[in-house]
Design a protein that fits this description.
Chain lengths: 341, 322
Amino acid sequence: MSSFLEVKNLSVSFPTEDGVVRAVDDMSFSLEKGKTLGIVGESGSGKSVTSLAILGLHKGSSAEVSGQILIDGQDINAIPETEVRLLRGKLMSMIFQDALAALHPYYTVGNQIAEAYLVHNKISKAEAKKRAIEMLDRVGIPEPQKRVDDYPHQFSGGMRQRAMIAMALSCNPSLLIADEPTTALDVTVQAQIIDLLRDLQKEFNTAIILITHDLGVVSETADDILLMYAGKAIEYGTVRDVLQKPQHPYGWGLLTSIPRLTGDPNKSLAAIPGTPPSLISVPGGCAFHPRCSYVSKVGEACSSSIPGLLPVTSGAHHLVRCHLDTAAREEIFRSQVAPNL
Amino acid sequence: MNSILKVEGLTKHFPGNKHSLFGKRDVVQAVDGLTFEVEKGEAIALVGESGCGKSTTGRLITRLLEPTAGTITFEGRDITHLSNAEMRPIRADLQIIFQDPYASLNPRHTVGTIVASPFRIGGVTPEGGAKKRVQELLEIVGLNPEHYNRYPHEFSGGQRQRIGIARALALRPKLIVADEPVSALDVSIQAQVINLLKDLQKQFDIAFVFIAHDLAVVRHFAQRVAVMYLGNIVEIADRDTLYSNPKHPYTKALLSAVPEVDPDAIGSRERIRLTGDVPNPINPPSGCRFRTRCWKAQDICASNPPELLHIGSTQVACHFPE
């Protein structure tokens, strides 16, 4: 049986004057209804480009998209823009990082929530407005019948994010993509929004793709994690696999470099040296090798051939893209990584 | 006396909108009656959510903004109302690092010019010439000294932040105000810059006022932490006490809201969820400003603003501390 969402060998590249930018390279993953996949990576790792491809938003741009994006068996990449339009909002929907930029400043919040509902349902404007009030109430906006006529600038940051969630969920989409939904928010408001998304997911059985750079946020919300680096998936597994037993040196670096509320605060953070590569000239072989401390354990292969995304142990669902062999990886993890986690 | 900076009753009110021609102008109470001290060579952090006044405080201390009331004493001298000309020699000892490494460097100047600007403005000729000193500084912050003639756009965000740090170090300051120095950086780069700042603090014995919203970042940098809410300090304590035994309900809520990376630790942590948003600083709640979101609030909280009082080694402004 195939999953609700299946992405197979997705690649997205942009021709530019300076050369071809390979933003996403050969990504494959799947997601069931009611589950959350966290796509984690730093700026420029290709996480947002992946999500735009799933919504078919690269159609009509210069981007070259290849591979299959099967939502409920339907290949988004193969059908024309006019048909994808009919699916957006209803089958799949998206919430963005910056709610102030994503909401139109000239229309009331209610108007914008009702718009999507009107497109997909044959109903009157009054009924659509009723739906907007209902949705605002559901996402926890106080006095929704009054606030429905407010403009986005009259909402606070957290309320705008709630309004955008209301808009995205107004037609009960089966798939919701949340692109850094809490990055622009304060921690106490972030915690509220995370709780809200979790409650709504339970209620509507939505599949959620959560795009973030914050390992704490994925840990609290996701079932699976896909770790990206320079346009490639480099590690893929359950939250427990990836956060407790990470297998890729980049994952090790990330987990030991983030400041936490536990552990010895006087110890220096184990920073990853160097900076992420430019996507125009991705290093040959493994894209992470110039920053990797374990190249010497493998040798030549790291800079000459791209490792495959393979099971950590045969048959496991935990996949990793690294030349280190299992024994060496386990040894490094036990002696150098685990004590710092 | 060992304090390098002393702030007493520091207040900044910004003029807001006017609602009618003869009406009174709104007053945005960004910072209201802050009192704290920074010891020589100490790293203190100001933590809080957006709009709590932490950045305004940083700009008041460095006198980039004119305070409405209160006093700022730097090395025993009252600098609250000094003119720009009078401030200039003091600025050698009192520097700032900004949040956005893209906006805080002039795109038309080379790195050499940027890092040497404190010498030019201060009228100082460093030993061995400006170029030599700039190259030394670039090396200290972990950049290649040969990149002297490059422009900011040739550098990544983390490297730009290092350029800003080199500029702040140029005149060997005694106090640096760092306003969210790592929040614009990617996670893998954040750790590099935190480690760098920590090393510099130790190596040159610089006092830091570290302004941040991220409690986990602060924990790895500061020795003492002041938590701010709506223009007030609600709690000050040394790091270990604050993180292990927070006294103010807001501090507790803030700590419990930090997302936990370890999936197994999520269930074991106490969860406090604040409702609503931070109120508008134009019209802050009477009495304790946190009372509208506080689960412990009583009548007294609305009528009397709590004072910042000692409980053990912690100073806390709450009628019902933990």
